[in-house]
Amino acid sequence: MSSLPNCPKCNSEYTYEDGSLFICPECAHEWELETKDEVMEEKKIVKDANGNILNDGDSVAIIKDLKVKGSSSTLKIGTKVKSIRLVDGDHDIDCKIDGFGAMKLKSEFVKKI
């Protein structure tokens, strides 16, 4: 017995594989199954400096004095940041810091509180 998935549109069990696509002969629906790499890519895990997993809405503290580009001021060690938002890219935390405004931070310079 084959282990082909049922059609996600009409739930028919008579699907067949054509290359990388699955096709339903009853409703003519075509779809691709997600590979393990795509699933892992969607669920990117962001960790702080101590290895704790960060989520949207967490509060963090800065663990190192950080120079702010384009400004003469610095973010001091221990500055608390509330309600972070995780984004893709090199700087993976998007947040608002009191007294500085909107900012992007790298997760390696923060710790979860």
Question: Mind explaining what this structure looks like?
Answer:
The protein is mainly beta and 113 residues long. It has 2 domains: 1-38, N-terminal domain of TfIIb, CATH 2.20.25; 58-112, SH3 type barrels (Roll), CATH 2.30.30.40. 6% of the residues lie in helices and 28% in strands. It contains 1 helix and 11 strands. It has one helix spanning 36-42; strands spanning 16-18, 21-23, 30-31, 60-62, 66-67, 74-75, 80-81, 85-86, 93-97, 101-105, 110-112. The strands form 4 sheets. The chain has a 3-stranded antiparallel β-sheet with strand order 1-2-3, with no helix packed on it. A 3-stranded antiparallel β-sheet has the order 7-4-11, with no helix packed on it. It has a 3-stranded antiparallel β-sheet with strand order 8-9-10, with no helix packed on it. A hairpin with a 3-residue loop joins strand 9 (93-97) and strand 10. The longest helix is centred in the middle third of the chain and has 7 residues, at 36-42. It starts with 15 loop residues before the first strand and ends with a strand. The mean pLDDT is 88.
